Every structure is written in structure tokens, then in C-alpha cells.
């Protein structure tokens, strides 16, 4: 049984979502298929799909939000890699038992109709890892 199915998306932190949408639309040759605000994370997201791959652009709606803090510290760029899982709670439990520090104690609702949880980058060679499971309707 696979624990992680595939890369679900790559998240890129940007200062200006409209400017970044223009850049990535030109780069990828397709417009974003979805844009939404995730109030709990103080972020606005845009999703692009190229074949089976997705790119998520994230812009902070508040300077002190997670993406605002990330950009202030590191600048724009790759923020996280998200992996698709079948059962996010089982995967969180497995990773906890393997010694990984989970940022979330329980999955929460994220963008693009997903349940999400994060693994602390201190345990993954400085890469923030997001686990994603399609949320039940």
C-alpha cells in the first residue's frame, strides 16, 4: 500500500497574485483554473494545471500571515511541496511514529477542496511538506 501517491502540487509564495498570475499564464500557456481565498491561512491562491501537474501560487492577505512572514524572511519562491494521500489521518499517524514533527495535530480544510496537514521543514531538509487528501463533500 502506498503511503504517498504522487506530488499533488508545488506551492510558490508570491507578493502580488495578479502579477504572478500574468507571469505564470504566459510561462505555462494556460490561465489559472481556480482562485480562492483561504481565510484560515490569510492567503489568496491561484491554481494552474499542466497535464497531471499543478502549481499553486500563494499571496498573503496579511503581512503577518504565514506566506507574508515567509516572503519577509526568504523572499518569493517555492514554499512547499504537497503530496496526495488516500488517508491523511493514517499518514499523519505514520509520519508521527517515524519521528517527523507535524505542524498540525489534525487535518484542516485547505484550498482546492482538500484536507491538509503540514510536516515541519526542520525534519525534511528545510522543505515544508504538505499532505493533501480530497475532502468529502
UniProtKB/TrEMBL annotation:
EC number assigned by the record: 5.1.99.1
InterPro entries linked to this entry: Glyas_Bleomycin-R_OHBP_Dase (IPR029068), MeMalonyl-CoA_epimerase (IPR017515), MMCE/EMCE_epimerase (IPR051785), VOC_core (IPR037523)
Keywords: Isomerase, Metal-binding
EC class (word): isomerase
Single GO MF annotation: metal ion binding
A GO biological-process term: L-methylmalonyl-CoA metabolic process
Domain of life: Bacteria
Pfam families: Glyoxalase_4
Database matches in PROSITE patterns: VOC
Residue intervals of the VOC domain: 6-134
Record keyword Isomerase present: yes
Homology family: Belongs to the methylmalonyl-CoA epimerase family.
Protein name (record): Methylmalonyl-CoA epimerase
Native source species: Aquimarina algicola
Gene it is expressed from: mce
Amino acid at each position: 500500500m502506498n503511503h504517498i501517491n504522487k506530488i499533488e502540487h508545488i506551492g510558490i509564495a508570491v507578493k502580488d497574485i495578479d502579477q504572478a498570475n500574468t507571469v505564470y499564464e504566459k510561462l505555462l500557456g494556460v490561465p489559472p483554473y481556480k482562485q480562492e481565498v483561504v481565510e484560515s491561512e490569510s492567503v489568496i491562491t491561484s491554481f494552474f494545471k499542466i497535464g497531471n501537474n499543478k502549481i499553486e501560487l500563494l499571496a498573503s492577505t496579511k503581512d503577518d500571515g504565514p506566506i507574508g512572514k515567509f516572503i519577509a524572511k526568504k523572499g518569493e519562491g517555492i514554499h512547499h511541496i504537497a503530496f496526495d494521500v488516500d488517508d491523511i489521518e493514517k499518514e499523519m499517524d505514520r509520519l508521527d511514529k517515524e519521528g517527523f514533527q507535524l505542524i498540525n495535530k489534525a487535518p484542516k480544510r485547505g484550498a482546492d477542496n482538500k484536507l491538509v496537514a503540514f510536516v515541519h521543514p526542520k525534519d525534511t531538509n528545510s522543505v515544508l511538506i504538505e499532505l493533501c487528501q480530497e475532502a468529502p463533500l
